[in-house]
Design brief:
single chain; 311 residues; mainly alpha; 2 domains; two-stranded parallel sheet; 11 helices; globular
Length: 311
């Protein structure tokens, strides 16, 4: 009974935060409410026994997306308090949210009560997937197209944002923040490595590890560290495209290694090599995700004349 009350309160709180974020007259307050919504959404995914989604929501939905929104607010030149929307203008998004939630609830009520047969199929093929965690097996073996296209979407988002992103303004680093960022950087790298390695057998993987690395890189950049991390750097551009490039090259290699008497399937790995292939893809995907999200948040450093920086 207590868990039922908790879940009911959590659902009502999610709805209240979503409506408050959309109805807020101040953009700063709207972003703060959105971050709170992301944290509560991560808790909801945890209650639904989906720790992979909970980790991704907490890191991406509440963390880096919130930082990206605050970065956009800080860089824009408009007076964010001047433009005030009327109540009818603010009610339209809220009405849309309520209708969407009603449609989702109606769709959920139409779902069959029995479990999908795909669960049993995935469990039966898990031994040939190269990993023991079903989510990783689905995302990087059974439905590798999904992960590949997600990497493509991230790359397209970065390419679309770079032409309109203003130069990053130089700022004075806070000595305490600089010390803490240097102290936490090794811990972030170790934890990201653990999440990457653990993804084969438990919640974790490339996206969670990549977002954690990106969060650490953003903190370091805000404290005037990692100045080489810029789109102008050839090696950074190589890291950004490495996730997609390695994915495609490995898929071509897997097709070439498929025996002639077996039907070749695109993005399907040989069972004996599946574990190593998935680890290789996730390593480069982690680096690509981390560098892409970092560039999306911090932008480009301001051009400095009469100064030569070593890369």
């Amino acid at each position: 009974m207590s868990l039922l009350l908790f879940d009911t309160a959590l659902c009502l709180l999610l709805l209240a935060l979503a409506l408050a974020s959309m109805l807020s007259r101040q953009l700063v307050n709207a972003v703060m409410l959105y971050i709170a919504f992301g944290l509560m959404m991560a808790l909801a995914w945890a209650r639904l026994a989906a720790p992979d989604l909970a980790l991704a929501e907490a890191a991406i939905g509440a963390g880096l997306t919130g930082a990206l929104c605050f970065s956009a607010l800080a860089r824009q030149q408009l007076d964010i308090t001047a433009a005030a929307l009327s109540w009818p203008q603010r009610l339209w998004p809220a009405t849309f949210v309520v209708l969407m939630l009603g449609g989702i609830l109606a769709a959920l009520l139409q779902l069959p009560s029995v479990a999908s047969p795909l669960v049993a199929v995935a469990q039966a093929e898990l031994i040939n997937s190269g990993v023991s965690h079903p989510v990783t097996a689905v995302l990087l073996n059974f439905r590798s197209w999904d992960t590949l296209l997600e990497l493509v979407v991230l790359l397209l988002a970065l390419l679309g944002a770079l032409p309109v992103a203003p130069a990053e303004k130089s700022a004075t680093s806070w000595s305490l923040g600089l010390s803490w960022s240097r102290l936490l950087a090794p811990m972030v790298i170790l934890l990201a490595g653990y999440l990457l390695w653990a993804g084969a057998s438990q919640p974790g993987g490339a996206f969670q590890a990549g977002v954690l690395l990106a969060a650490g890189a953003v903190v370091l950049r805000l404290n005037q560290q990692l100045n080489w991390l810029s789109w102008c750097n050839f090696w950074v551009r190589l890291l950004v495209v490495a996730g997609i490039a390695v994915f495609v090259l490995v898929a071509l290699l897997a097709l070439w290694l498929t025996p002639a008497n077996v039907d070749a399937v695109w993005l399907s790995w040989p069972p004996l090599l599946a574990g190593g292939i998935i680890l290789l893809i996730e390593v480069f995907a982690t680096l690509a995700i981390a560098s892409t999200l970092t560039l999306l948040v911090v932008g480009e450093p301001a051009p400095q004349h009469n100064r030569t920086e070593s890369v």
